[in-house]
């Protein structure tokens, strides 16, 4: 390894792990016989150069960061760096807060493909605008840090990105329209922030997207029709936002969806306008607490891969189709907290299979027939149906005479069972 490269590496590492470390136990250099865990090298023009630098307790014998860890300018002299990651390195937002450097990232732009900051609560401030110079970047992960501010539009110019994870921070404001230009993106996770505003119409431009997680924010407005352009999407998670305006019919065009979670949004409307049978790959469908009205469409029973169906805490009405029990893979069915009516027509085996994972409680006008089900397996929290009123079959002689007498007068008195 060139002395210049080694000196830059050692100084950069010391900034994170402390001056007591000097690499003296590495022979003959960090890429030799005793390498540092978290450092990888490759040969260029006959010399070893660092290509991968991971700081923090990623491996058993990795170098841990000191409380006052800092970025040193020598980090940006590692010109062949392809991957740079920090895990549990900047831990104290009050005693030793650290911001991401705002300069020199362009010096790594020629080779850097992966940049990650994971679980660093002491990492505060905003995303530097010069991240936009990292045009080779394929993975940008800023997960569970203390970062704040708005999402920079410049990130939308990183058109080689395959993964963009900005979850678990304090980002606010709206999702930039420029993100729609990330047409090679496979994973977009902006969950657990303070993002607001409507979903951008440009979201339909992310045609390669496999996973979209925007849950636990403050997003509002309608679901855009353009969301149906995401034909390859397998996960759509918009839980715990303020989205309203009903379900868009374009959802039925997302044929690859395996998980759809829209719960805890005031979306409203009904379920009847969606051709649910088009979404044959659905495994999880969570539409709880959305203000839904109307009946449960029979087309949901055609989702043969479905394992979880959550429709609880809505205003759904009507009878439950016994065909729901024919879903071959269903293991959890939550319908509690609605206005469903009538008798449940499921078998004892179905109740035994699901147990407490069959939720139908808090439907005041729903009941189950006691004669068809044992006392050990029945729907939890659902009342038994009342016995029907019947005409007493056996009459005493005096009752028969009295009956005949009143019948002649045009009046009939019935004695009924409870």
Automatic annotation (TrEMBL):
Q: What is the protein name for this chain?
A: Leucine-rich repeat-containing N-terminal plant-type domain-containing protein
The UniProt entry's GO biological process terms, in alphabetical order, are:
response to other organism
What is the organism field in this record?
Answer: Jatropha curcas (Barbados nut)
Record-linked Gene3D superfamilies: Ribonuclease Inhibitor (3.80.10.10)
Q: Which PANTHER family match?
A: OS05G0588300 PROTEIN (PTHR48010), PROTEIN TOO MANY MOUTHS (PTHR48010:SF5)
Principal place of residence: membrane
The UniProt entry's GO CC annotations, sorted and at most eight, read:
plasma membrane
Keywords from the UniProt entry: Cell membrane, Leucine-rich repeat, Membrane, Repeat, Signal
Instruction: Please indicate which superkingdom the organism of origin belongs to.
Output: Eukaryota
Q: Does the keyword Transmembrane apply?
A: no
- Check the record and name the InterPro entries matching this protein: At_inactive_RLKs (IPR050994), Leu-rich_rpt (IPR001611), LRR_dom_sf (IPR032675)
Compartments where located:
Cell membrane
List the Pfam families. Answer: LRR_1, LRR_8
